[in-house]
Design goal:
Number of strands: 13
Order of helices and strands: HEHHEEEEEHEHEHEEEHHHHHEHHEHHH
Strand content: 15-25%
Structural class: alpha/beta
Helix content: 40-55%
Length: 413
């Protein structure tokens, strides 16, 4: 039995600090582990040796700053995680290990009018097929991250009103998928998962405060504050699409007039161009034509960028993020949309906040949400699970250097 403050409990806490640092980063050198955990180099060396002997981590030679180093990552045998992303017209599933390596990934079209029963049935079959393709047993699945295009009630876990998947309103997506797969399922909306994906693998790496803006059939933002997703008490933080730009503007699906979404989302923007570009115009095609020099598409994208910039300026004034990452198909327009965003931010944001902000396109494209779903599982899983599933660890008395260092607070999950 571990007594708080005892050598055993302090040692256990240090083990979990190291495991968590490696789990969140994918792989770290021992020097990076020491910096992120606050433990001494000697303590980290002893703990890494112990975790390696127990089978929890793998250590491989690498280099850092031109010097030889040792890269530490969680063992490939420690388990796998699953990411599932339901979008406006697609279903995407990825299988990854705890070293942040994607082992298998596949996407298929999904009719937005499909029932939840059909959608979850297809997700279950795709998950099972990809697990089989990896050659890893389903008993190694630690958890599933699930992304949906709508707000999730943080208390009930049910999906709120969404015009993208109208037949799904009121269901509990996490419960539905967990019953089918028999493993824990963590659920979040697509914008939050896009933010997590870019934070861990993409354009958000290296920062702790960012906003991920996704412009598609709707407009949403995933907010990262101090390295963690901020959801708000009701789970609706980041609804940037419903900032009012014009009280006399078009009526929004939320019931208000002149929301940012009514000036930027595909359902409002594409009709402006369809008289001249045909009824089958898509956001992706509009961006492609703009890049090829089409003046109408370039004008519309520029206008969209300026409107998004107004919303981003409000975020800057309220939250002062250091980076904004633009996701969705619109990000492929590059400077055609990014430059107008920056112009609006410079005009409407507090100058000090605007100077500190960088606006970048997402690096992950359409994969941001499914990779964010993998990151969600990695962030929510407990470190104790990994330690308990490994071989017995050494008695803490043999690791004396780690006992002299008290437990620092673990970062909140």
């Amino acid at each position: 039995m571990e007594t708080p403050g005892s050598q055993t409990s302090l040692h256990r806490a240090n083990l979990e600090r190291v495991v968590r640092a490696v789990r969140m980063a994918g792989s770290l050198t021992q020097a990076e582990i020491a910096r992120s955990t606050g433990l001494s180099a000697a303590t980290v060396s002893n703990i890494v040796r112990e975790l390696k002997e127990s089978g929890t981590v793998e250590v491989t030679p690498t280099s850092a700053g031109g010097r030889r180093a040792r890269s530490v990552s969680l063992s490939g045998d420690a388990g796998i995680v699953i990411g599932v992303d339901f979008g406006h017209a697609h279903l995407r599933v990825a299988v990854g290990n705890l070293a942040h390596q994607v082992l298998a990934e596949e996407a298929e079209p999904l009719d937005v009018d499909a029932s939840s029963e059909e959608g979850f049935g297809r997700a279950q079959r795709l998950v099972e097929r990809l697990i089989a393709a990896t050659g890893i047993g389903p008993d190694k699945v630690i958890g599933v991250g699930l992304g949906v295009p709508g707000p999730i009630d943080v208390e009930s876990g049910t999906l709120g009103s969404t015009s993208i998947l109208p037949g799904w309103t009121g269901i509990n997506p996490g419960e539905e998928l967990a019953n089918r797969l028999g493993v824990p399922v963590h659920v979040d909306n697509d914008a939050n998962l896009g933010a997590l994906g870019e934070l861990v693998w993409g354009s958000g790496r290296g920062v702790k405060d960012l906003a991920y803006i996704k412009v598609a059939s709707g407009v949403g933002a995933g907010l990262v504050i101090d390295g963690r997703i901020y959801r708000g008490p009701g789970g609706t933080a980041g609804e940037i699409g419903h900032i009012t730009l014009d009280e006399s503007g078009p009526v929004c699906r939320c019931g208000n007039r002149g929301c940012l979404e009514t000036f930027t989302a595909a359902r409002y923007v594409l009709p402006l161009l369809r008289p001249s570009h045909g009824p089958d115009l898509t956001m992706e095609r509009m961006v492609q034509l703009a890049r090829e020099g089409d003046p109408g598409c370039r004008r519309v994208i520029g206008d969209v960028g300026r409107h998004i910039g107004s919303g981003v300026a409000n975020l800057c004034n309220l939250l002062n993020p250091s980076r904004v990452v633009l996701g969705g198909a619109l990000a492929e327009a590059g400077e055609l949309v990014l430059s107008p965003i920056r112009d609006s931010v410079s005009r409407y944001a507090i100058p000090s906040a605007a100077r500190q902000l960088s606006v970048l396109p997402g690096a992950l494209g359409g994969r941001a949400e499914v990779l964010g779903a993998l990151a969600l599982v990695l962030s929510e899983m407990g470190d104790s699970t990994l330690l308990e599933s490994s071989a017995p660890l050494k008695d803490p008395v043999t690791a004396s250097s780690s006992l002299r260092e008290g437990m620092a607070p673990l970062s909140s999950r």
